[in-house]
């Protein structure tokens, strides 16, 4: 069975925001990968910009990109399977409460969005766009830059 861990940096649309999640991680299984691919095909076929669906099976955290990169460089992380890697990530990425988490699917990419708990849409969090090609492998990956 396909199981991929994806970690992504997050940014808030409000440049003055503080103490908001800076990262998110989630697991992509075969059915989620297929759902994203099918929705991307639908978006392309119908000449839409984006389609989205609610997705709450992810962990948003204030952990910085640098701390995640440091963990991912450790031999214990590299040598672990996805379950071991997920456990290590949960240890260094304490959960931040969010609402209305969704996956936004475009023709060639997707991204996660969320709103921190007790905030409005003016505090929306977004990951960089993640290329659909990332769904092809089960390698754990950290997405830190906008896909173009």
Number of strands: 10
Name the overall outline: globular
Helix content: 25-40%
**Total domain count:** 1
State the low-pLDDT regions, or none. Answer: none
Largest sheet: 6 strands, antiparallel
What would you say about this model in short?
The protein is of the alpha+beta class and 148 residues long.
Note down, in words, how this protein is organized:
This protein has 148 residues and is α+β, with helices and mostly antiparallel strands. The chain has one domain (2-141). 27% of the residues lie in helices and 32% in strands. It has 4 helices and 10 strands; from the N terminus they run βββαββαααβββββ. It has helices at 30-45, 65-72, 75-79, 82-92, and strands spanning 3-9, 11-12, 23-29, 51-54, 58-61, 98-105, 109-116, 125-126, 130-131, 141-143. The strands form 2 sheets. Strands 2, 4, 6, 7, 8 and 9 form a 6-stranded antiparallel beta sheet that branches. The longest helix is centred in the N-terminal third of the chain and has 16 residues, at 30-45. The two termini are 30 Å apart. The model has no long low-confidence stretch (mean pLDDT 90).
């Amino acid at each position: 069975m396909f199981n991929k861990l994806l970690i992504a940096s997050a940014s808030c649309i409000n440049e003055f925001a503080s103490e908001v999640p800076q990262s998110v991680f989630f697991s992509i299984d075969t059915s989620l990968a297929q759902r994203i691919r099918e929705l991307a095909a639908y978006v392309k076929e119908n000449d839409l910009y984006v389609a989205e669906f609610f997705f709450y099976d992810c962990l948003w955290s204030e952990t910085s990109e640098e701390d995640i990169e440091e963990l991912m460089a450790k031999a214990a992380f590299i040598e672990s399977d996805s379950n071991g890697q997920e456990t290590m990530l949960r240890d260094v990425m304490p959960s931040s409460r969010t609402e209305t988490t969704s996956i936004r699917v475009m023709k060639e990419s997707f991204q996660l969005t969320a709103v921190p708990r007790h905030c409005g849409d003016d505090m929306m969090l977004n990951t960089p766009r993640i290329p659909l090609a990332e769904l092809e492998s089960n390698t754990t990956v950290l997405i830190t830059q906008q896909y173009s």
